[in-house]
């Protein structure tokens, strides 16, 4: 299977569920009532009112996609930037927004331009927001880099587009020579430059 774009999935055992006809009919009846029409008056709606009702229906309905034993390839400029695996994933789409909940163990390999793994991330579960290219990792989050740096926390955000990370939670960062801890962190995803915050102020590692 070909590698797919940021918003595409490489999955196995996918089952798709969409809003039921009964729910759509109920919402249509409610919207018609809101516009002051009965079900028998559908033909009396203007084209503008029909368009408004269709937009409201689309905004009100959430579709979902489920997959088990998932494998996701995240592409950037025709190359694989990251590969994620998890035990289960459910994607919820409403209008133009989409979020994917991934159950673990979640494992991500991040690649450089040569295809070498530079960073590994593990967590109990994750959420991916396709519109903003943001990951959120929850529960026993572990980050390891090929430079020997590590990070441990219970929660971590990864801005994939800017390749930055942050967390408001307690975090421990280790390097080949130091171990630092604090509550709150911002920095680069490869841990080459991070700022940790705690009651005593902040420490910048770069």
Written account of the structure:
By secondary structure, the protein is mainly beta. The protein is 14% helix and 57% strand. It has an eleven-stranded antiparallel beta sheet. Strand 2 and strand 3 form a beta hairpin. Helix 1 (21-34) packs across helix 2 (47-60). The longest helix has 14 residues, at 21-34. It is globular and about 70 Å long. Residues 1-23 have low confidence and may be disordered.
* Beta fraction: over 45%
State the end-to-end distance. Answer: 40 Å
Summarize the helix and strand pattern as letters.
EHHEEEEEEEEEE
Instruction: Let me know the average pLDDT.
Output: 78
Q: If helices are DSSP runs of H or I spanning 4 or more residues, what is the number of helices?
A: 2
Helix content: 10-25%
Shape: globular
Low-pLDDT residue spans: 1-23
Radius of gyration: 22 Å
Q: Tell me the structural class.
A: mainly beta
The major beta sheet can be summarized as: 11 strands, antiparallel
Q: Taking strands numbered 1, 2, ... along the chain, how are they ordered across the largest sheet? A: 1-2-3-4-5-6-7-8-9-10-11
